[in-house]
Amino acid sequence: MKKVLLLFVLIASTLKVSGQDFDKEKIVNRLADIMNRNYVFPDKGKEMHDLIKGKLKRNEYSAYEDEASFAQALEDDLRSVIYDKHIRVTNNSQRAEAIRNRDFGPGPRSNGKFGFEEVKILEGNIGYLDLRGFSDIGQAEDVAKPAMDKLIKSDAIIFDLRRNGGGSPSMIRFISSYLFGDEPEHLNTFYWRPSDSYSETWTDPKMASQTKPNIPIYVLTSNYTFSAAEEFTYNLKNMERATIIGETTGGGAHPGGPSIIHGDFIVNVPRGRAINPITKTNWEGVGIKPHIELPKEDALKKALELARKAIASK
Questions:
Q1: Are 121 and 154 in contact (CB under 8 A)?
Q2: Quick one: which H or E segment has residue 299?
Q3: Where exactly are the structural domains of the chain?
Q4: Region at 292 (left for phi over 0; alpha for psi -120 to 50; beta for the rest)
Q5: Which residues have C-beta within 8 Å of that of residue 163, sequence separation ≥ 6?
Q6: Residue 51: CB partners within 8 Å, gap ≥ 6?
Q7: pTM of this prediction?
């Protein structure tokens, strides 16, 4: 009997320790405050704040007994106000520790390629880049520069973004600088809610070893293509600089970043929005419709066909 009692005490103690950071009241109150202060649309941020605080007051979160299901419930509630795919609530101790240390995780650079999964010149002098993520150029320049220096020597370039979930606008700027002329081109404008300010991104011809404003460009997309990968696609489509082939993209145009809520609970907060200088809007919630709609598996074949025709016509 003593052994059974001791085991019960040990189990109870373990459960208490593991649940120390699982304080629903603190989590909800902090999350409500974060979204109210930072979400790109103030009225929606306030609506999220009121929704989850109200549910807490009515004890509607009592059924969630583990961190994962509670995080998912909070994410679902926030997205019920506005379906923004950049809003994510998770519970992850390793990720939380990395954020506290200002190390935002391996991302597309985890294998040393910084997202540049495959760079090659195909038959007919067609450049091909399988780009899995847009890393910050400050970290990835040693990989990005030789890749673009190689591709720009071809007679057409295919950017394969079918497995690209996004990343940094700085890489968009770097790659785009090879694709226009000797004068800077306005790529995008961002509005940032926390600072109530705007920022712009422009090409910089000095970043490129060579510029080719007339080289045929093809961008391959899928429904997975998201965020920064969509910005790159949207920029080139509206500047009439590329042919987009594949599927309509995911529809995420609100950049932001992670914030610690409480303990190991994390929320990704969309703090800004893209404002294209041509359309004066963005692709949020609707994605980008390709010029040529095809199943993603057929996009590369079509791009090669078009590239060969474009090269032959020259």
A1: yes
A2: helix 299-313
A3: 22-100, 114-252+287-313
A4: beta
A5: 117, 130, 132, 222, 224
A6: 77, 78, 80, 81
A7: 0.89
d(CA 184, CA 295) in angstroms, rounded, equals 35
Q: CATH number of 114-252+287-313: 3.90.226.10, 3.40.50.1370, 1.10.1670.10, 3.80.10.10?
A: 3.90.226.10
On the CB side of 215, CA atoms within 13 Å amount to: 23
| pLDDT tens by residue, the chain, 314 residues | 544 444 444 444 344 334 444 899 999 999 999 999 999 999 999 999 999 999 999 999 999 999 999 999 999 999 999 999 999 999 999 999 989 887 654 455 457 899 999 999 999 999 999 999 999 999 999 999 999 999 999 999 999 999 999 999 999 999 999 999 999 999 999 999 999 999 999 999 999 999 999 999 999 999 999 999 999 999 999 999 999 999 999 999 999 999 999 999 999 999 999 999 999 999 999 999 999 999 999 999 999 999 999 999 98
